[in-house]
Amino acid sequence: MRDTRAELLAQAEVLVRGRGYSGFSYGDLAEAVNIRKASIHHHFRTKTDLAVALVRAYDARYDEALGSILSLQSDAVARVEAYGRYYLAGVEDGLGCLCAVLAIEMDTLPDVLRADIAQFFDKHIAWLERVLADGCADGSLRPGLDPAATARMVVATLEGALLLERLLAGSAGFRSTLATLCDSLKPPRTGSRNALSSGRDDTI
Questions:
Q1: Which of 196, 200, 201, 198 is nearest to 176 (CA)?
Q2: Is it true that domain 51-185 has CATH number 3.60.60.10?
Q3: Rounded mean pLDDT of 172-200?
Q4: Would the pLDDT of 138 be above 90?
Q5: What does the alpha-carbon distance between residue 148 and residue 152 come to, in Å, rounded to a whole number?
Q6: Any residues with CB less than 8 A from the CB of 187 and at least 6 apart, and which?
Q7: Among 2, 49, 168, 194, which lies 20 to 30 A Cα-Cα from 81?
Q8: Is 6 exposed, middle or buried (0-12, 13-18, 19+ CB in 10 A)?
Q9: Angle, in degrees to the nearest 10, between helices 26-33 and 4-19
């Protein structure tokens, strides 16, 4: 049985991540899903309702991803690298981070959507801060690292690299940035940088 709502969310996410919030219409979405534009309103009465549903679904997928990283990776640098690979997937697919793309148009967005986007980034910064604090405590990160400030730097670096490398050097450029970022977190005694493999995590 066709799940029209799920199809609408999937196609709307691609449209927003590729064009921005103001860069697509319900007409574009209706064409992508092959339904009448009026039918979209049955599932999402307004474009705001659709965008809120998109952000909350995206946030839920990331919650699962962050939990998976904690269970599969044992040290802070490996966790940051695994986190960065989700951004790498965006570079390879030619799509921006949903919440970052929306944040570009922050001044024109409704309050409920702005709040959900801010909560998304606050959650990621808090998660990274905990990861980095654990790494400082177990000695796997360089001495003197400030977990709070570094968590914000990690998010800013990855979001910026996702934006730039979609235009410039693609996945190779992003991998280089991610490797340099991870190296900057390691204690001085760590050896030479290990090249990142060409693999990628599931797109989220």
A1: 196
A2: no
A3: 76
A4: yes
A5: 7
A6: 139, 140, 141, 142, 143
A7: 168
A8: exposed
A9: 130
